[in-house]
Design goal:
Helix content: 55-70%
Radius of gyration: 22 Å
Number of domains: 2
Number of helices: 15
Order of helices and strands: HHHHHEEHHHHHHHEHHEEH
CATH topology of the largest domain: Fic-like fold
Structural class: mainly alpha
Distance between the termini: 38 Å
CATH superfamily of the largest domain: Fido-like domain
CATH class of the largest domain: Mainly Alpha
CATH architecture of the largest domain: Orthogonal Bundle
Length: 360
C-alpha cells in the first residue's frame, strides 16, 4: 500500500493467510464464552427496552467521540428526553447514531440482510443526508499532523466491487468462527471506506448487527467504542499493518481482546443496573407503598432525566399526581430535581453513576 495512491488493489475476502492460528483460536474460545455469558445476563433485566435504549445511548456517545463529536451525559439524556428538539448539532448527531442503530437492529430482526442497501440507509440516518457511495476522487485519511496515512480505494465501480465481495463474505458458508469473521468484516469495511462521511460509525453498527444476525446476542449491547477510545493508537496501528504487512493475526487478536474486555464490563454494568433497580423498588415499597408500581420504577430508569410528561405518557398518573410522585421520590433521595430553563428534571443520580463508570 502506498499512502499517496488510492488502494484500489485492496485484496478481496477471504484473506489469503492463516486465520486460525493457535493464539487466535485460544482467544476466540474465551471471547465466545464471554459473549454467551453476556447474552444470558442481559435477560435478567425484565424490561429489555431499558438496556436497548440506555446502553445504546452510551454507545452512540462513545462511538461519536471517536470521530471527535463530544457531548456530556447531561446533554445526551436531556436531549433524549426532549426527543432531539432544540438541541445543539453535536447532540443531534449523537442521537442520530442511536436512531441508525435502532433502524439496523429492527431491519435485521425483520429478516433483512446485511447488505449495501442497508449500509447506505444506516449512514444516511447518521449523517442526516443522502450520502451514497463515493464517486469523486481525492478522499484521504490524515493524522493529527496532516500527513496522509491511508488513501482508500476510489472510483464507484471499484468501491462497489469491494462492497459486493464483502457482502458475499458475510454470508459465505464456512467453518470460520463468527467472532474472527467479525474482525475481518470490521477491517474490510473501514479499508473500503465507501462513504464520504460516517464510515467509522456505520462500520461499528454493522459489526454489532452481524453478531445479532449470527444469534451470538439477542440485543445490541456489546459495543467496542470504549475499548477503541482507550486503545486508539493500537487500533489505527493494527488497521494499517494489515494493508502494509498483511498482519491479520495481530488485528484479529486485538478485536477478540476488545470483545472479551467489553463483554466483561457490560456484564458488570447490567448486574449493577439490576441491583440498583431492585434496591430502588424495595426502597419505594418500604417508604412509599401507596405510590409504588413496577411501571414507575421502570420509567425512572428508562429516562435517567425524568419529567412529569413521561409519567403521563406511560399512563402511570395524570399531571398533578405525576408531579407529586416525582417530588415524593426526591424526598426519599431516589431522584434529584433540577430546573433547566422552564423544565424540571428529576435525575436518577445512582443510575447515572453506573452508566458513567468507565470501569464497568
Amino acid at each position: 500500500m502506498d499512502p499517496n495512491k488510492p488502494f484500489n488493489e485492496l485484496p478481496l475476502l477471504p484473506p489469503k493467510c492463516d486465520l486460525e492460528t493457535p493464539q487466535i483460536l485460544k482467544k476466540a474460545i474465551i471471547a465466545n464464552k464471554e459473549i454467551a455469558e453476556l447474552k444470558g445476563i442481559a435477560n435478567l433485566i425484565p424490561n429489555q427496552a431499558i438496556l436497548l435504549q440506555i446502553i445504546g445511548l452510551q454507545e452512540a456517545k462513545l462511538s461519536s467521540e471517536i470521530e471527535n463529536i463530544v457531548i456530556t451525559n447531561d446533554e445526551l439524556y436531556r436531549a433524549f428526553g426532549e426527543n432531539n428538539v432544540n438541541t445543539d448539532p453535536n447532540t443531534k448527531e449523537v442521537l442520530r447514531y442511536k436512531d441508525a442503530l435502532w433502524h439496523g437492529y429492527n431491519s435485521i430482526k425483520k429478516g433483512r440482510l446485511l447488505n449495501v442497501s442497508l449500509f447506505e440507509e444506516i449512514v444516511d440516518i447518521i449523517t442526516n443526508r443522502k450520502v451514497g457511495i463515493r464517486k469523486l476522487p481525492g478522499t484521504k485519511l490524515v493524522n493529527s499532523f496532516g500527513e496522509v496515512v491511508y488513501f482508500p480505494p476510489e472510483g464507484e465501480a471499484v468501491i462497489r466491487e469491494k462492497l459486493d465481495n464483502l457482502e458475499k463474505f458475510i454470508y459465505l458458508e464456512n467453518d470460520l468462527d463468527p467472532l474472527i469473521k467479525s474482525a475481518i468484516i470490521h477491517y474490510q469495511f473501514e479499508a473500503i471506506h465507501p462513504f464520504y462521511d460516517g464510515n467509522g460509525r456505520s462500520g461499528r453498527i454493522i459489526n454489532i448487527l452481524y453478531l445479532i444476525e449470527k444469534k451470538l446476542l439477542d440485543l445490541p449491547i456489546l459495543y467496542l467504542s470504549r475499548y477503541i477510545i482507550d486503545n486508539k493508537h493500537n487500533y489505527y496501528l493494527k488497521l494499517r499493518a494489515i494493508a502494509e504487512k498483511n498482519a491479520w493475526e495481530d488485528w484479529i487478536l486485538y478485536i477478540l481482546e476488545a470483545i472479551i474486555q467489553t463483554a466483561n464490563l457490560t456484564k458488570e454494568k447490567i448486574l449493577s443496573i439490576q441491583k440498583i433497580m431492585n434496591e430502588t423498588a424495595a426502597n419505594v415499597k418500604e417508604k412509599l407503598p401507596k405510590l409504588f408500581s413496577k411501571e414507575l420504577i421502570e420509567i425512572i430508569f428508562y429516562y435517567p432525566y425524568c419529567k412529569i410528561k413521561f409519567l403521563e405518557e406511560a399512563k402511570i398518573a395524570h399531571r398533578q399526581t405525576a408531579s407529586l410522585y416525582l417530588k415524593e421520590l426526591e424526598k426519599i433521595g431516589i431522584l434529584e430535581g433540577i430546573k433547566k430553563g422552564r423544565e424540571i428534571y428529576y435525575i436518577n443520580r445512582a443510575f447515572l453513576k453506573i452508566l458513567e463508570n468507565k470501569n464497568m
